[in-house]
């Protein structure tokens, strides 16, 4: 049973390798099988052999069971803080052939006409992606598997390119920092000594792929000059080696900063580090969001005809991004039933209104059913769900005011009528009294005369 589940998880490429930094990473070796199809074979990278030496892996082709030596330590340290509860990383291996960079602006990296002998041999490129980092490494592979103690092939990491922001989500209008670091250790002492001491020249390239179109944002070859394409969209990169020790390994920084990110800048960002005849690249998926402003009209909802249908309520959901996945729900809170429940009535949404900044707005409508006087003081709420908001969404409410209930009540009306009646009566009585008294006085005067 245990071996079955192991087999199953190997088959899915999901072996749980993430406790206290994994000892091994399960991968797929991918190669072109001709006629446009790909062939995949299971492979594994052994990062730590463990106290008893490398565990035997009879399930793997020994050329694809790789004992990884990582002199710069970047690959291994990327896994050190890998969260236990995160999904296992996705790992892919493929063959790599050292070649000069194809772009014209990177030609100055390879002034010599042929690839140095120090780069001879078999190379592999490993690409690892996960929710916490994304990296690629170039590995130089020993030609034959080693026999002792188990069949395994030694491989040395030469170049690693790493980002800790594989899926940046940027609030619209905010700056984005896309983190990139790289490390390099010359594959053999000869390779290092054939160059001047210190880190080699390098080129940095950032591109964006969107809807099948590639777009060069930034290219740099620090210290080399040459004709470099102009930087786009205000991008700024920190393209530098961190140190200039004579003999490596060296680490460098290729972080890019994009000011005031807009929706059109969403897409896959490709960061490529060019060294003479070697290239490492990672991709990042940048997405933009903007949370909606929500308001309700009319507020309050005043209605003078109990038993009849009140006017429709409008929920204004303004300036949000992306346009997909927005939901509007209506609730009725309070009233004779108390509590909060789904509002009855007809509901519909307007079409999207597009703004020049790339954000969108829409209106949610509710035609509430006829209102009774008991519903006076109840609240209608519009609740909006969107990927830019917390899971509970955002809600606003209006109070329902039934006229004739909130103003002077029926009893008040009767009271007023009665008082007016009495007041008029009193005036009349007083009138009579005055008239009577006057008459009496006249009579008295007549008597005394
Ligand atoms: C790269 O440079 C940026 C800007 O100076 C800095 O914020 C970032 O921490 C650096 N990254 C590394 C890995 O040192």
UniProtKB/TrEMBL annotation:
Gene Ontology terms: biological process: antigen processing and presentation of endogenous peptide antigen via MHC class I
One GO cellular component term, please give it.
phagocytic vesicle membrane
| SMART domains to which the protein is assigned, alphabetical | IGc1
Domain of life, per UniProt, equals Eukaryota
GO MF term (any one): peptide antigen binding
UniProt-listed SUPFAM superfamilies: Immunoglobulin
Record-given protein name = Tapasin isoform X2
The scientific name of the source species is Castor canadensis
